[in-house]
Design brief:
CATH topology: Glycerol-3-phosphate (1)-acyltransferase
Helix content: 25-40%
Distance between the termini: 44 Å
CATH architecture: 3-Layer(aba) Sandwich
Number of domains: 1
Structural class: alpha/beta
Oligomer: single chain
CATH class: Alpha Beta
Strand content: 15-25%
CATH superfamily: Glycerol-3-phosphate (1)-acyltransferase
């Protein structure tokens, strides 16, 4: 697997570059959340994955909302095309391989530090934001149920709307999930939260 090697200069450059793109391409970015995330525990962030910007949204949430270090799991074949991202906190995973367990163990190690956020896109691939019933890959349950450390589980749903304007608005809905940590329970809860977010978006 390919491990993350975060570098402050690279993080600054990457976040600054996308912040400029954000101002050019998007009208507004807002976070919708009524929950509290205690600072004494790490965060496993489960987020929908539908665009090039998703890594930046994850980084933004880590630094501006959670105020923790940013790490994100990415398919190895994609990361090898963009190795500079390892300096921003990206590490690899290979589905259906022996290295999958190594990546999960690495992520679990990161989650032992309460100052870290590990972002996982549970669908494991880019999927349209209109598809609300996407299947979860099962690896995340190992992270949620680590016997050594149980991180907070944050649900993030990112939705985009143009309305009557040329540039779209980004809304990030966040939830501190506190239910059962079985794969089925988390997947069901995330889907229900997604549908609730869509309902709020169109209200």
């Amino acid at each position: 697997m390919i491990k993350a090697r975060p570098n402050p200069l690279s993080l600054w450059f990457y976040s600054s570059y996308f912040r400029v793109l954000q101002k050019i391409h998007f009208r507004k970015f807002s976070i919708v959340c009524d929950d509290i995330f205690p600072e004494d525990r790490s965060v496993l962030l489960l987020q929908n994955h539908f665009s090039l910007y998703d890594g930046y949204w994850s980084m933004y949430l880590c630094h501006r909302f959670f105020r923790r270090n940013f790490y994100v799991m990415m398919l190895e074949e994609e990361l090898r095309k963009r190795m500079f991202l390892t300096k921003c906190g990206v590490f690899s995973v290979r589905k259906n391989s022996r290295e999958l367990l190594e990546s999960l163990q690495y992520a679990a190690g990161l989650l032992k530090n309460p100052r870290n956020v590990v972002t996982v896109y549970p669908a494991g691939e880019l999927i349209s934001q209109h598809w609300q019933q996407f299947p979860f890959q099962r690896g995340f349950s190992r992270l949620a149920n680590s016997p050594e450390n149980q991180p907070l589980i944050a649900f993030a749903v990112i939705l985009v709307d143009y309305f009557s304007l040329a540039r779209p608005e980004i809304r990030v809905y966040l939830k501190n999930y506190q239910g059962e940590r079985t794969p089925e329970a988390v997947e069901t809860a995330y889907r229900e939260f997604y549908q609730t977010c869509v309902s709020k978006q169109i209200a």
